[in-house]
Amino acid sequence: MLSLTNKRLLLGITGGIAAYKCAELTRLLTKAGAEVRIAMTAAATEFITPLTMQALSGNRVHLDLLDSEAEAAMGHIELARWADLILIAPATADFLARISHGQADDILSTVVLATSAPVAVAPAMNQAMWSDLSTQANLHTLQQRHYHIFGPADGEQACGDVGPGRMLEPTQLAQLCAGLFETGYLAGLNFVITAGPTREALDPVRFITNHSSGKMAYALAAEASAAGAKVTLISGPVNLAVPDRVNCVDVITADEMLHATLQNVQDADVFIGVAAVADYRPEEVATKKIKKSAERIQLTLVKNPDIISEVAKLKRRPLVVGFAAETDNVVENGRKKLKAKNLDMLFANNATDTFNSDSISVTAITPISETNLATANKNLAARNILQLISDQLAKT
Questions:
Q1: Residue 383: which H helix or E strand, with range?
Q2: Are 101 and 67 in contact, with CB atoms under 8 Å apart?
Q3: What are phi and psi of 166, to 5 degrees?
Q4: Is the pLDDT of residue 72 over 60?
């Protein structure tokens, strides 16, 4: 399956008739999971509109080198650093000549000169221009600089000639782009992970919560993304940076976490419930701060929704994986939760050993097996956990 999940691809469009194919190319790249940004030369806008490319990519199209808004943050440099791959399609004879000589007189050529990412060009021109010695010399220069040359194809051309010079079809270009990247073992899979604690308000300044740093869930999100998965992290309040290329949805209460989960889990392949969700919330929330006057106050608590159980009840359910932080009889209580909540897999750990710690030891429990994972830092533990989840997914 074609996968460009988590890849950042800059599509550079130059002024050739084949520019019309970039609409379909952008659709295919986006469908394969890439985040696509577009940079166009002035001539390219005569063949396909920036508005079309913005609608298809979902991102603002870069047109001007001296953009007063973008240049406040050195926009062309930021774009050069952002890309995992730059694809120039179509690449006209003129543009090939300019980049082979190191020119940087528009946004696209400047980004090409400034990037350390791989650059691929998809030539598109008249067959006589393609065969010209100057064009071939420019291509030879680019090949020596380790540019990837995609095509061209032979065939009928817009001018009526027949021969080499047609830009490759969008499906071919998308496949060639994907082939430049290593494919992680979770490539193409969609993960939804809950993280951190929830907070249930007592009044405007006080709340009920659970101990949870969020470190385990954030490590899982980072490692799953690195292995090629598309990851949505639904996080309660934590003091952690969101991992690169992970979509984070911030929530506070259990009800908010449930709502966000059900919104995002419909297309998920794997759901991992790591969050320490508050089991109860106050029946009534005071509108003003509760004053410290009486020696005792009484609170009535009502049960919060069990998020992982709700996911497990879905008609079209993903692989459902839980975490259980226990203080005693860790494996026994974990197995009871696995059965009661109808989970596919559960990782049980001793809660008193792991709160705010960078290390964890867990036991992986399935309906038919138990596997102990030795104590390790949470990033290494996350890799081991994800491998077990991948193995379990292969069995379903």
A1: helix 378-395
A2: no
A3: -75, 135
A4: no
Q: Which two tokens stand for residue 251?
A: 């929530």
* Chain segment 143-170, per-residue pLDDT in tens: 999 999 998 988 777 777 777 889 999 9
Residue with tokens 């097996």: 369
CA distance 351 to 360: 10
Burial class for 105, CB neighbours closer than 10 Å (0-12, 13-18, 19+) = exposed
CA distance 377 to 168: 47
393 in Cβ contact with 185 (< 8 Å):
no
Distance CA 225, CA 184 (A): 9
* CA 247 – CA 231 distance, rounded (Å): 6
Give the integer Cα–Cα distance in Å for 122 and 134.
Answer: 17
- Position 71 scores a pLDDT of 47
105 touches 98 (CB < 8 A): yes
By annotation, the residues acting in catalysis are: 159
Record the tokens describing residue 63, joined without a space. Answer: 């047109």
Cβ contact 173:25 at 8 Å = yes
CB 10 within 8 A of CB 111: yes
Phi, psi of 286, deg, nearest 5: -65, 140
Query: Residue 90: enclosing H or E segment and its boundaries?
Result: strand 85-91
Cα Rg of the chain (Å, integer):
27
Using alpha carbons, select from 242, 255, 246 the residue that is nearest to residue 214: 242
The 3-state DSSP class for residue 28 equals helix
Q: Is 275 helix (H, G, I), strand (E, B) or coil?
A: coil
User: Which domains can be identified in the chain, with CATH numbers?
Assistant: 8-178 (3.40.50.1950), 190-395 (3.40.50.10300)
CA distance 70 to 78: 9
Residue 214: which residues within 8 A CB-CB, separation 6 or more?
Answer: 195, 196, 197, 235, 236, 238, 240
* Mean predicted confidence (pLDDT) in 128-137: 94
Residue 121 is classified by DSSP as: E
* pTM across the whole model: 0.81
Q: CB neighbours of 259 closer than 8 A, spacing ≥ 6?
A: 251
> 């009044």: which residue's tokens?
203
Residue type, 277: V
Evaluate the omega torsion of the peptide bond into residue 197 and state whether it is cis, within 30 degrees of 0.
no
